Structures are given as structure tokens and as C-alpha cells.
Amino acid sequence: MEPRTIRFFRRGELVSLDNVPPERTLLEVLREDLACTGTKEGCGEGDCGACTVVLAEAHDGALKYRAINSCIRLAHSIDGMALWTVEDLAADDGSLHPAQEAMVQCHGSQCGFCTPGFVMSMFGMYQNHVCKGETITRELAQEELSGNLCRCTGYRPIFDAARQMERLPRVRVDEQGVLAMLSTLRVEPVDAPPPTQPYMLPQTLPELLVLRAAAPDAQVIAGGTDVGLWVTKMHMQFPRVLDVTQVRELRRIEPYENHLAIGAAVTLTDAFAALVQERPQLQTFARRFAGLPVRNSGTLGGNIANGSPIGDSMPLLIALGAHVVLLSTRGHRDLPLEDFYTGYRKNVLAVDEVVAWIKVPRPVAGQVLRAYKISKRYDDDISAICLVVNASIENGVVQQVGIGAGGVAATPARARQAEAVLRGRPWTLERSKEAAAALRAEFQPISDMRASAEYRATVLGNLMQRFWLESQGMQQINLESFLLDEAATP
């Protein structure tokens, strides 16, 4: 099988790469094949941001920019896109881009190892906000740089630099030129593609299903933020890869009367944005899911299919009553998300099936929703415990309730016993204590590097008590009520 050619635009020129193995990362290609050594390898797992680059695709007649981690992004997945690395920002005469110049002016670099990654995240911020006339606040800078770590500066000068960008002379990308170039790479769908390539990148749903049926042994990726770790940390190799991220039908979010249908290839950034639009109380939870570059690559369908018991999207979706739609050439299946899992990272998918859509019920009046993420580090960290409670309370009685839990069992789980304690009963302090006790008794969590079993069980119950207090209007116990005083920032 001949490897497919990777084609993307960089510096206004078409880059074509042949004979790239399917498991080769974008970072490896940049540093070793294209000599782009400004892009650094730090952690190799999407945590530190030193490898950040920016991708752009055509979206509604404009470019959509995304800062991503190149260390865990498979190189073939950027086929048909535009790419910027830190080497691409300065002008031909050597003048710096505002993202670079602002770092110089604000003394945002010390040892310099992390600087290229910060600059690229700031470039993405510049394109998505400054070029649209939006102001960069310290809060926005902190949110969008959450996936970049620095051991030297203490971050203040970097946040200052992010805000300084808009005060510098504008530098604009020739978007129409880039869009014209990208249009030349548009791939036309085919009816019956033969699975003859190690890396398969279908463009339509029928094409995907035919390939899945013909190549059941292929490793499916949908963003690859976990598969990338298998490559960089476990040194896994894949004879064939089936990438769903460019399937047009699965990149859509479609609103219906009673639910949102979120395609499996929708990025976590876009999926959470759609959920937050209808449920603003999820804003902080969405920001804390991971650093922005991870959310920009990872997909909701990939997070679900991966099935990690410490994945944060599943407890939320279980509490909301979401269903997952599975597709194959034989037809489709629709089932509650909690019924999708059968064991640790195991599920009911047949070898010829893919996760296609996630159906999330629309909010109704009277719902009280809270999502809690407990981790050692506030930003860009994996949960020790995740608990989401979604209760419909009418006249002081819990009419319906959904409780999703993560980090407490071999799979993401529904807390059925705690739900039974609450459903149809008056919502009182004593009832919340009973539900807390039921939560502690319902699961047998393990002890690991993130938390002990005793800690997890105790905190589960404490979070139910916190839900009670917040449902009664108490806010000061929640970090969401704490805002940085911008006036105190130099």
C-alpha cells in the first residue's frame, strides 16, 4: 500500500510530502523533514504547548484559525489545510509580527524554550480576536493561553504581551489568497473508495462507512489527542488509520426541537460552545476541560469513543440525558450514552460501526445544572473526580434528575442509586445528605496518582452538598465568583 501524499499550504506555497508513515506526528515532520526547529518538543503529550502551531480551514467563506499541539497531531490529518509555524510570522524585511513584538516589548521571554508556543497561541488569538476588532482582556488571555506552560516568567508579562498586541500596527493575513489556494486542494468525494492506503481520510459519511466496513482493523481517530499519546508515549504503530475528522456530515451541529445533534467530528471547542450557548452555567467547566490547543484538535465523538473513565465530557452528557448514534453500512443504533460502555475503555461498537452523532436534549425550565471538576491543577489538568448534577425542581420537588460521574469507576457512570433517592422527593437539606451518602456507597473508586479511593468517595458526597448550597443561591463557595481585578494589573 502506497502512503497518501500530504498537501498543505505554508508561506503561500504548496507543501507536498510523500511516504509519510500513518503514525508520524506533525511535530516530527516539521522538525525532522522540514527543518522547522522553532517548533519545540517539550512534553510530547499536549500538556506544555511548546509545540503549538496554527492551522486554518475554510469556514463560511472565511478562514477559521485554530492553535493546536503538533506533538500529538498526526501529520496526515492536516491534509488540505493552511499551516503557520513560528518561522512564518516575521515579514520578509525582518519586522516582527505583533505577537512577537509584544513579547519583546513586555519582556515575556526568559529562557525562551516555551516562547515559540506562546507566540503561536497569541497569533491564533490575534487572528480570532484582534483582527476582528475585539479587545484582548486579561481574562481572555489567561483562558486562551491555558494550554501553554512557562517555568520562568510567572505569566504576567506574557498576559501583558497578549493585551499589547492590539496596540501595535495591524498585520493581516491575505485571507482571500489563502482561501483561493485551499480551494485547489478540495477533495471530491467518491462513491466506493478502496481501502488501499495506510492513512484513510474520507470526506463524506457514505465514504467513511464503506471504508470502515472494508477495514475493520484500522485505527479510527477523531482528533487524535489520545491516539497521539499512544504514539509518543507507548510507541505504537498502526498499519492503517481511518481519520473521521474531515467527514462533512460529522462536522455539523444541527439544532432540532428537542435536541442538539452534534457530529462526532465536531471539535471540543465548538461542541462546548454550542452547549454553553444554551447552558451558560457550563462556561467554566468547558474552559477547564483541557487547554485550548487540545480542545481545538480533540472531538466530542473521539472523547466518547475513547471512553476514558476520567474523561470529562461523558459525565456531563450522561447527566443531560444524551444519546449516541452508531452507524454502519448495515444501519444505525441509538442508545443512551451510559449504555455505550461495557468495561474499562470497552464499548458496544461493532467492528464496522462508528460513533456518528451525539444527541443532547435541549434545556427545559426549572432545571438546575452544575458541573464539578476536581483536579490537582486548576487549568489544563485531568480530573480526579468529575460530577455533574442536572435536576428539574418544581414546587420544591425533584421531578427529574440526571447524575453523571467520572473518575470513580471503570467507565463513566450514571449514579442511579443517588438519582433514585432524589427523584419525586422534596428537595431539602436532609434529602441532599441522603443523596450524598448514596453517592459515596454507589461506587468503589480506586487509589491512584491523582487521588485516593477514600478522597474520591468523600468528595463525591461533598459535591452533592455543594450542589444543595448552590441550588439555594449560595455563590461564594464557587471559584466562578472570583474575578481578577483588572484595575490592579499594570
Structural features, described:
This protein is of the alpha+beta class. The chain contains 16 helices and 19 strands. It folds into 3 domains: 176 residues, Ubiquitin-like (UB roll) (Roll); 163 residues, Uridine Diphospho-n-acetylenolpyruvylglucosamine Reductase, domain 3 (2-Layer Sandwich); 105 residues, Enolase-like, domain 1. The protein has a 5-stranded antiparallel sheet. A 4-stranded antiparallel sheet has the order 16-17-18-19. Strands 4-3-5 form a 3-stranded antiparallel sheet. Helix 2 packs across helix 5. The model has no long low-confidence stretch (mean pLDDT 92).
Q: How far apart lie the N and C ends?
A: 59 Å
| SS summary, helix count | 16
Total of domains: 3
> Can you identify the CATH superfamily of the largest domain?
Beta-grasp domain
- Average residue pLDDT: 92
Main CATH class of the largest domain: Alpha Beta
- CATH topology annotation of the largest domain: Ubiquitin-like (UB roll)
Q: Report the helical percentage.
A: 25-40%
Net shape: globular
- Strand numbers in spatial order across the main sheet: 9-10-15-11-12
Which percent range describes the beta-strand content? 15-25%
**Using only CA atoms, what is the Rg?**
23 Å
Q: What is the second-level CATH architecture of the largest domain? A: Roll
- The helix-and-strand class reads alpha+beta
